[in-house]
Specification:
Elements lengths: L7 E5 L4 H21 L3 E5 L4 E6 L5 H6 L11 H11 L8 E5 L5 H8 L3 E6 L4 H7 L8 E5 L8 E6 L2 E6 L23 H15 L5 E6 L2 E7 L4 H17 L3 H4 L9 H12 L4 H4 L17 H8 L5 E5 L6 H9 L2 E6 L6 H11 L2 E4 L8
Parallel strand pairs: 4-5, 5-6, 11-12, 12-13
Antiparallel strand pairs: 1-6, 2-3, 2-4, 7-8, 9-10, 9-11
């Protein structure tokens, strides 16, 4: 590649500043996921932070239903499966997202993208059928970028803020190695292959967030991302709340909500989100529920939610630095966390380890902080 030549080609649309930031950051994320797991990967980015990230782990019938793809008759390809998981992790946050795919976008993936609200996509290539489908979005203005998969950036990056140029080395921390989780100071040292995969997904996702950040992952995808908070405890709570909502969507009472056929996908997402929260009366009061449902559903009670959330298990949790208090572990345990990866190095490490031992949680200390200054 010649100096000054861009590593991507605009095939459709006119990308804006934030679009390009989302595209280049999400591209790095999916490339690292691909390298770390050997599986096709996808990411959903929104305002320079990941809303979802996933690899191609087959979908259960339950996940197909809550991700609104149970009607798809065409066999799902691996890259389509990765996209569905990434987009479904937090459908509210992914509304109007920028998509990244590690592998060529095929026809079935394009058809799935076509029916979602999205601002653009970056991928190493597109089949002719996929390109024709995507070019129909947004009245022909959908942003489509083709990335040069062989591109490798210079080791030094520069950024200008308020007329001042900052320069530092790229954040090239390698999270793909098999010895990443060798240091396990907890009593429970069990770390199945699936947990190692999910911890890598969590950590790689966090690398492309704003610190402080915490990510819950399960079954090959992020299920709750909390980023950019001043307190890592608040990150853990925020990400845990998102993980709980992801799990609550699989509760039979939520899956069987009697939606009207004419309710749009985005409205259905929002209605489900409100129904599962404390403000459920906003969609169940007389004069409102009729807009969404064929009959008025019964509320999802606090006890029902607590009982269902308690069923979640084998969740992995990553932090972009260290956990300063055992409170983080207490909160994570409520959302089914059994495996944790964090940098370590806090003066409170003993308290964190003790809390993990209390709940039988396996924790690896990587010694790696995922952000740099």
């Amino acid at each position: 590649m010649n100096e000054g030549e861009l590593p991507f080609e605009v095939l459709c649309g006119r990308p804006g500043y934030i679009n390009l930031l989302d595209a280049l950051n999400s591209w790095q994320l999916v490339c690292e996921l691909r390298a770390a797991t050997g599986l096709p990967a996808a990411a959903s980015f929104k305002h320079v932070s990941p809303a979802g990230a996933a690899v191609a782990v087959p979908l259960t019938d339950t996940l197909k239903q809550i991700y609104f793809v149970e009607d798809v008759k065409t066999p799902l390809t691996p890259i389509a499966t990765a996209y569905i998981r990434a987009r479904g992790a937090d459908r509210m946050s992914s509304f109007g997202d920028f998509i990244a795919l590690s592998d060529t976008c095929d026809e079935v993936t394009a058809l799935l993208i076509k029916r979602e609200v999205s601002d653009g996509i970056i991928a190493p290539g597109y089949t002719s059928e996929a390109l024709d489908i995507l070019r129909q979005k947004k009245n022909g203005n959908y942003c489509i970028l083709r990335m040069d998969a062989s591109y490798r950036p210079a080791p030094t990056e520069r950024k200008q803020v308020f007329g001042v140029t900052f320069e530092q080395g790229r954040n090239d921390i390698d999270l793909t190695g098999n010895n990443l989780f060798d240091n396990i100071p907890t009593l429970n040292k069990s770390l199945p292959d699936e947990a190692r995969r999910d911890l890598k997904i969590a950590l790689i996702t966090l690398k492309y967030t704003q610190s402080n950040s915490v990510c819950y992952a399960k079954d090959g995808q992020a299920i709750g991302i909390g980023a950019g908070q001043q307190s890592r405890i608040h990150c853990t709570r925020l990400a845990g709340q998102k993980a709980d909502l992801w799990w609550l969507r699989q509760c039979p009472k939520v899956m069987n909500l009697p939606f009207r056929d004419d309710v749009r996908r985005a409205d259905r997402d929002n209605t489900i989100d409100v129904y599962m929260g404390d403000e459920y009366e906003d969609v169940l009061r007389d004069g409102t529920w009729q807009r969404f449902f064929t009959c008025r559903p019964e509320p999802l009670t606090r006890d029902e939610k607590r009982e269902w959330i308690a069923r979640n298990s084998k969740v992995s949790l990553g932090s972009d630095a260290f956990f300063p208090f055992g409170d983080n572990i207490e909160r994570a345990h409520k959302s089914g966390v059994e495996y944790i990866a964090q940098a370590g190095g806090s003066v409170r490490d003993d308290n964190v380890i003790e809390t993990c031992d209390k709940y039988g949680i396996t924790m690896a200390m990587t010694g790696i902080r995922l952000f740099h200054h």
